[in-house]
Specification:
Elements: E1 6-9, H1 12-32, E2 47-50, H2 58-69, H3 81-97, H4 101-104, H5 110-135, H6 154-157, H7 164-181, H8 188-209, E3 212-217, H9 226-235, H10 243-253, E4 255-266, H11 276-281, E5 287-295, E6 305-311, E7 320-324, H12 333-342, E8 349-352, H13 371-375, E9 388-390, H14 398-401, E10 402-404, E11 414-417, E12 432-435, H15 441-447, H16 450-453, E13 470-474, E14 483-485, E15 495-499, H17 511-521, E16 525-526
Parallel strand pairs: 1-2, 3-4, 5-7, 9-16
Antiparallel strand pairs: 4-6, 5-6, 7-8, 9-15, 10-12, 11-12, 13-14, 13-15
Enzyme class: transferase
Keywords: Methyltransferase, S-adenosyl-L-methionine, Transferase
EC number: 2.1.1.72
Length: 527
C-alpha cells in the first residue's frame, strides 16, 4: 500500500472511503492468513491524494521568510537569499498552476508544469550568470564596468550551485515540513494547514510524475467545466469531445510500455461520429484486448456504460474480445460477463480484430455487424453520403406549449410534434401539437433568457429541418424502431429526425435493418 497503490480524487470523501477500504481489506487478508494483530505491519501511509488548489497569499510570503532564515534538515547553513527566492517563486507558480486542479484533478499535468518551471528557472540562472560575468568585466581602456546589470534576473545569478535546481522540489518539501513544525503564535494553525496543503500538492505532483503498470478508473463524463475547458482542450486535442476521453488519453500517457488501463465509462466514445478523432488518434493506436458493452443498470446514473481494457502497445492482429450485454438485466450482467469471458462460444461474445473496423468511416467499433455487412463499406456502389440526424427542440415548459393533436389545429399555428414514445414498428401516431405561431415567437421569447441568457437556439435546434419528411425514432426503447415521419411536423429532442435516409430500400424494422441503422447512425452528422 505504501509503494504500489496510488489514488487521486477531487473529492476528499472519496479519498477517505478508499483509505478505509484498503485498511479493512488488508486486515481481512491478514485475518484469513491467521496473522496475529501484534505481528501485522502498521499501515502508516496510503498513497491517496486529494487534488485541491493551493491558495496563494500572505502565508506564501511567510513561507518565503522561513526559507531565508532557517537551516533546513540536511543542510549545513541557510539557503542563499537567491535560492530562497527561487524556491518561494516556484511554490507560488505551482499554486497558480493548481487553480484548476480542484475541478480537473489528474487531467492537469502538474509534473510537466513543475518540470517546466524548474527548467525555466535553471535556464534563467544560466543566462543571469552569464550576464553577471559580462557585467563585471572591466573595460581595459577606461577602468570601469563595461555595462550596468539592471536585469531582474540578478538574484538568480547569485544561486551558488547548479545542483540546486535538481534538488528544488525536495528542498520545497523539507522546508514545508519545517514551516509546519515551527508554527507558533496566532497564525500557527493556519501555517500548519498551509504546509499540509502544499505538501499534498507536491505529493500530487509526485503521483502525476510516476509511470504506472496498471491504471483503473471510473472517470466523470460530459463537457469540461467552463473554467478549465480552454486549458484542457489545448492539452487534449484528440479527446476534447468529452472529459472521460481526456482521462483515457491521460492514463495512456502515464503508462509504462506494456502497461494496462481499465476503464468503465460512457459507451458513446466507442461508436458515435463525434468521437471519430478519439478512436483514430487515441483508442485504436493501442492494443485493445477486451471491451464489455454493458449498457444500462450498471452505475447509479442514467448512462449506458462500457468497460474496456487498453494496453500501452501497438495494435495487435489478435482479435479483440467484445461482450454484448446491452439487453441483459442488471442483476444478470455479472453472470453473463463471466460466461462471455470463459466460453468462446458464448452468445454474448464477438472476437474481432480492430483492423476490420478500418473499412467503416470513423472506425466505429460496430462489432455486432457480421463481416459481410462490414465489408459492404468497401463497395463503391454503396454510397452513404448526404445523410444527417437532427435533434429538435425542447420547450422547458410542456404544460404551456404542448397540446394533444385534437385540441389545436395547424391552421392556427399548432403543428405535430414527434416526441419519441414506446416501441412501434413502421409507424406511430403523432399525438402531440406544439405552439409554433409566428415561427415559434412565443416559445423563442420564453427560451431566450433561460440558462443565463444563452439564447433560444440552445433548446430550439435544427429549425431549418422542421416540416421536412423523413424518419423518426424514440430515443429510448428496448430496440431500434424507425418510423415514417410525414411532412408538416416538428422534431424534438426525444424524437429526432433522419434527413434524407440514405438507403433506397424499404424500411423494415428487423435485425438486418437495425444492424444497418446502428452502423449508419455512427457515421451521420448528429447535432
Amino acid at each position: 500500500m505504501a509503494h504500489n497503490l496510488h489514488g487521486i480524487d477531487i473529492d476528499p470523501r472519496a479519498i477517505q472511503v478508499a483509505g478505509l477500504t484498503l485498511w479493512l481489506r488488508a486486515h481481512r487478508s491478514w485475518q484469513r492468513l491467521k496473522v496475529r494483530a501484534a505481528l501485522r505491519p502498521r499501515i502508516q501511509e496510503a498513497r491517496l491524494v486529494w487534488a485541491e488548489p493551493l491558495a496563494d497569499g500572505d502565508l506564501l510570503a511567510g513561507f518565503a521568510r522561513t526559507l531565508r532564515s532557517e537551516i533546513l534538515p540536511g543542510q549545513t547553513k541557510p539557503l542563499a537569499p537567491a535560492e530562497a527566492q527561487v524556491l518561494g517563486d516556484l511554490l507560488r507558480s505551482v499554486a497558480h498552476h493548481t487553480r484548476l486542479v480542484g475541478e480537473a484533478g489528474w487531467l492537469i499535468p502538474l509534473e510537466r508544469e513543475l518540470a517546466s518551471l524548474i527548467e525555466t528557472a535553471r535556464q534563467q540562472w544560466q543566462d543571469a550568470r552569464a550576464a553577471v560575468a559580462k557585467a563585471t568585466q572591466t573595460d581595459m581602456f577606461r577602468g570601469a564596468p563595461a555595462q550596468q546589470l539592471t536585469m531582474p534576473l540578478e538574484a538568480l545569478g547569485k544561486v551558488r550551485r547548479k545542483a540546486f535546481f535538481a534538488e528544488a522540489e525536495d528542498l520545497l518539501l523539507v522546508a514545508l515540513t519545517l514551516y509546519a513544525e515551527q508554527a507558533a503564535g496566532p497564525d500557527a494553525y493556519q501555517r500548519q494547514l498551509f504546509a499540509a496543503d502544499a505538501a499534498r500538492t507536491l505529493a500530487l505532483v509526485d503521483l502525476c510524475r510516476l509511470r504506472y503498470d496498471v491504471v483503473l478508473m471510473n472517470p466523470p463524463f460530459g463537457a469540461a467545466a467552463d473554467a478549465s475547458k480552454t486549458y484542457l482542450d489545448r492539452n487534449y486535442p484528440s479527446a476534447k469531445m468529452d472529459i472521460f476521453a481526456m482521462f483515457v488519453d491521460r492514463a495512456l500517457r502515464r503508462l509504462r510500455p506494456g502497461g494496462f488501463v481499465g476503464i468503465i465509462s460512457s459507451r458513446t466514445g466507442l461508436f458515435i461520429s463525434s468521437f471519430k478523432i478519439f478512436r483514430e488518434q487515441v483508442l485504436l493506436r493501442h492494443h485493445l484486448p477486451l471491451v464489455a458493452d454493458l449498457g444500462g443498470e450498471v452505475l447509479d446514473a442514467t448512462v449506458e456504460t462500457a468497460a474496456y481494457v487498453i494496453q500501452q502497445a501497438q495494435p495487435s492482429p489478435q482479435p479483440t474480445t467484445f461482450l454484448r450485454l446491452l439487453n441483459v438485466p442488471g442483476e444478470e450482467k455479472a453472470e453473463a460477463l463471466f460466461d462471455g469471458l470463459q466460453n468462446e462460444d458464448s452468445e454474448y461474445r464477438f472476437d474481432i480484430p480492430t483492423a476490420e473496423f478500418e473499412v467503416i468511416p470513423g472506425q466505429s467499433l460496430a462489432y455486432w455487424a457480421t463481416k459481410p455487412i462490414r465489408q459492404k463499406f468497401t463497395d463503391s456502389a454503396f454510397n452513404l453520403t448526404g445523410g444527417a440526424v437532427k435533434q429538435g427542440l425542447e420547450t422547458a415548459n410542456n404544460f404551456r406549449f404542448l397540446r394533444l393533436w385534437w385540441e389545436k389545429s395547424p391552421k392556427y399555428g399548432w403543428f405535430p410534434l414527434t416526441k419519441g414514445g414506446s416501441y412501434y414498428p413502421f409507424y406511430s401516431d403523432i399525438y402531440l401539437s406544439i405552439n409554433w405561431i409566428d415561427q415559434g415567437r412565443e416559445l423563442k421569447a420564453w427560451a431566450a433568457p433561460l440558462y443565463g441568457n444563452s439564447g433560444w437556439s440552445r433548446i430550439i435546434k435544427s429549425v431549418s429541418y422542421y416540416f421536412t419528411p423523413g424518419l423518426t425514432y424514440p430515443r429510448r426503447t428496448h430496440t431500434l424502431c424507425p418510423q415514417a415521419m410525414p411532412a408538416g411536423g416538428i422534431i424534438s429532442a426525444r424524437g429526432s429526425g433522419i434527413y434524407p435516409f440514405p438507403l433506397k430500400a424499404a424500411v423494415v424494422p428487423n435485425k438486418i435493418f437495425s444492424t444497418w441503422l446502428y452502423l449508419l447512425l455512427s457515421l451521420l452528422t448528429i447535432c
